[in-house]
Amino acid sequence: MYYTKAMQEKKSIWILARWVFSLTFKLSPLLVGASVVSTFFKAILDIAQVYIFANIIGQIITLASSPNPDTKSIIFYLVARFVIITFRRLLSFIEEYSHQAIYQILDPLLDQSLAVKLQTLRIQTLESPEVQNKIQRARDGLGALLNFLWTSLRVIESGTRLLLASIGVFAVYPVLILINLIIRIPMYFNDKYFRQVVWKMYRETTESRRMARESYSYLVSTQTLHEIFLTGSFKYLLNHFSSYFKSYVKQLNQTRKTWLIRANSITYLTELYQLSVYIFVISQIINKTLEAGRGLVVARFVETIDDSMATFIFSINELQEQSIRLWDTYELFQLKPSFPDGNKVFPVLTKGPQIDIKNMSFSYPNSKKNIFDNFNLQIKSGEKIAIVGENGAGKTTLVKLLCNMYQVNRGEIAVNNLNLNSLKLDSYYKNLSVLFQEYNTYPHLTVKQNIAIGLPNKHINTLKMKTAALHANSKDFIEALPSKYEQILSERYKKGIRLSTGQWQKLAISRFFYRSSPLVIFDEPTAAIDAVAESKIFNRIYKFFQNKTVIIISHRFSTVRSADRIIVLDKGKIVEQGTHQQLLDLKGKYAHSFNLQAKGYVN
Q1: How would you label 419-451 residue by residue, b for 16+ Cβ within 10 Å and e otherwise?
Q2: pTM metric for this prediction
Q3: Which of 138, 176, 270, 501 fits as disulfide partner to 528, beta carbons 3.0 to 4.6 Å?
């Protein structure tokens, strides 16, 4: 078997059932409660209806053979049936309405819950390949959460019918229950086995499926299609996507074919059993050893037992399968950050903080290679520093550590003499702005919203927004747009337009001018901007962020010359530092790289 007994016990459907009912009930207590109650009582009325109907037929047979028929009993059963039909229809309405409303209400709320959960986890946790696979399976399985709820209700419904019908048959022919159980055992194990086989296929191909869907995402994105058209790589990526699913579907269909053949063979035997029960009951009625009404009740209850047991078995197996599929979602919701949040509230600053990095060592999780080893750096309050170096020098890693996305292995980072690990991140982030190399774009939002999202919880200050656009050198192209600051920035939406990469980068920089935090970090902020615009933006950065601590990460040595201090990183170590002129006079690594880049511009 693919799963050991210990794994099956761990992934218990009962653990998930408690979690699913707790989560969904918390999101919508009235609707979930109505679904559970209506399902349970509907099952009771189903049994009562079978009993009443069988007795009506029995009464008809008795009346037909009686010289002095008494219609009181049949009238009682007819009235009882009318009442049951009425209440059952009401319960069905409640159940159907609750299910539809739950889908409409809970579906987006569950997506929202997943987003909120991911937001509470640290980047160090989220960037783990294992967690990435778990997130992919959780996103695939989130819709299965509601299916798990419906299947659980089906178990309650079929289990209630099965129990009540079994009580009715047990009083007359208990052996029939035992026979029914024996016949259904092969169905249970056959269904269970093939569900595990299908799940094994699904789980073992998670990463391949992620890669295939990644290829597909490039085929349907207007941002990536232009390069695909030019390189002629469409068929290559399409084949990468389709070949996985062709192989997967082929194997899946072969498995399901064998599964259905065996399942239908077992079902055929159970149908023959039902027929034999009817023959037996009819013979007992004819021989007058069993009263007609009671015999029909037994026959119908046996049929109900068989159908309910089949539904119960399939539902239990389906719950087991769904619990395995849903387990990654459950585990993700139980997942804790790689490190806890601090307990100290960092105050809102009016000027840039001082940063002290003391004897810091750091290596990424699951890596033995140190990016930094006993690294020391002090950045004074209000200082404008630039950090330069080749790829792999540790510049972006340093940014992540300053943002506390990862925690250092040894040493500490202190902000205004407070250990970064001890701070509540929300309070720290209110004083921080970071523009990463891979900055966010929001093409479904307007220009105004793209800038103002830098301070999302405050009323938009139009004057401040336009000033930010001016400093980021984006004002001119914004004013030239058809709808200016109200312009939607994607051609996928009505009257939307597409910005160039350089325009997007200027818009992202505008966002950080608008945010105007005491501590500002720019990680390669002008990589897609021409040299003239870049020079203007850097000059404005130094002037605009007065009394603020500014850290600029750059490959371009020529763009950081106005910094108060330039730090040259090489393989996680500070090899040079000073002003632009001091480093040129030093004639070391900075001067060599600067002259090479300057020569490249001249050529």
Answers
A1: ebbebebeebbbbbbbbbeebebbbebbbbbbb
A2: 0.64
A3: 501
